[in-house]
Amino acid sequence: MIKYLGSKRLLVPLLLETVRGIAPSGTVVDLFSGTSRVGHALKAAGYRVVANDHNAYAATLARCYVESDLEDMGAAPGLLAELSRLPGSPGYFTETFCRESRFFQPKNGERVDAIREAIRALSVPPGLEAVLLVSLMEAADRVDSTTGVQMAYLKQWAPRSYNDLELRMPAVLPRAASGKGAAHQADAVTLAGTLEADVLYLDPPYNQHSYLGNYHAWESLVTWDKPAVYGIACKRMDVRERGSAFNRRRTAFDALAKIVRTTPARALVVSFSNEGYIDRDAMTALLAERGEVEVITRDFKRYVGAQIGVHNPAGKRVGVVSHLRNEEHVFVVRG
């Protein structure tokens, strides 16, 4: 799966254990699905997973890893082999992310352009299209030149950027024992009250950092709308407009409170960082409206970009690292 700020890779075993302790089977809603790493793990454990994210790239990941089933992917390997044979053809992606900026080497940007145009021309079901798009997204992620976010690119090319782009079949799972999953692209606050579940898993944005701003190249790759861009990082213009209530201190708590108070889910599991806008005491008090709250805390190293300090657009270091580790709280309300 793609490199991702806030990824729950190290927390997945604890989350699975926690969900199993609440419900050994059934439906889990992942309302802020991101890369779908958690949803994928829950599906592998037999749960029916309903995923949601308001960004197109994340909804596509969910359509691949949660909604799509391996039983329906017979055509995928052959199509990926055909797409892999296409020669590069420079276009929007190459111009924007290889020449105007330096996220990818031009040789790989040209292949992204060619493959993405070919996928757009195909007439395939949405699930299969999502698998092809995720294969391309993950292939590009393996040859990028960033610290893991697309707020900026490295001053010198990353060694991996010299590798050739390679399409691989994503790890699509068979249908879960508890039933077929689903993927939504909707506002989490609006959707929360409409989804029945045994467990609602919440991993909302913690602070001011927008996932759209951090992964804008993936949004453009998936939507293929070739938008106007701004700044050194060539961000989509709508990064300035598509804000989230969870990225603003004054609105984050109320948005989360509406979800907690309206969800029909029997139990809640909430993952939240100590670096977030809502502190442990406030989160505990909110969740206590639904029942007794258990809090499990784990200590983790911060992501690599936070470990190397603050640099200006010229690459000069202008800030220092405040701390190297953070705490992740898992709040559990069994209902």
Task: Please tell me about this protein's structure.
Helices cover 37% and strands 15% of the residues. By secondary structure, the chain is an alpha/beta fold. The chain folds into two domains: 187 residues, Vaccinia Virus protein VP39 (Rossmann fold); 126 residues, no CATH class. Strands 3-2-1-4-7-11-8 form a seven-stranded mixed β-sheet, with helices on both faces. Helix 3 packs across helix 7, helix 5 runs antiparallel to helix 6 and helix 6 packs antiparallel against helix 7. The chain starts with 11 loop residues before the first helix and ends with a strand. About 2% of the residues have low confidence.
List the helices and strands and how they pair.
Elements: H1 12-22, E1 27-30, H2 37-44, E2 48-52, H3 56-67, H4 76-84, H5 92-99, H6 106-121, H7 126-141, E3 182-184, H8 188-192, E4 199-202, H9 211-214, H10 216-223, E5 229-230, E6 235-236, H11 249-262, E7 267-273, H12 280-287, E8 293-301, H13 304-307, E9 310-311, E10 317-319, E11 325-333
Parallel strand pairs: 1-2, 1-4, 2-3, 4-7
Antiparallel strand pairs: 5-6, 7-11, 8-11, 9-10
Helix pairs in contact: 3-7, 3-10, 5-6, 6-7
- From the N-terminal CA to the C-terminal CA, the straight-line distance is 33 Å
Q: State the shape.
A: globular
CATH topology of the largest domain: Rossmann fold
From the helix content, strand content and strand pairing, which structural class follows? alpha/beta
Quickly name the level 1 CATH class of the largest domain.
Alpha Beta
Let me know the number of strands: 11
- Please give the largest β-sheet: 7 strands, mixed
CATH superfamily of the largest domain: Vaccinia Virus protein VP39
Overall number of domains? 2
Helix content estimate? 25-40%
How many distinct helices? 13
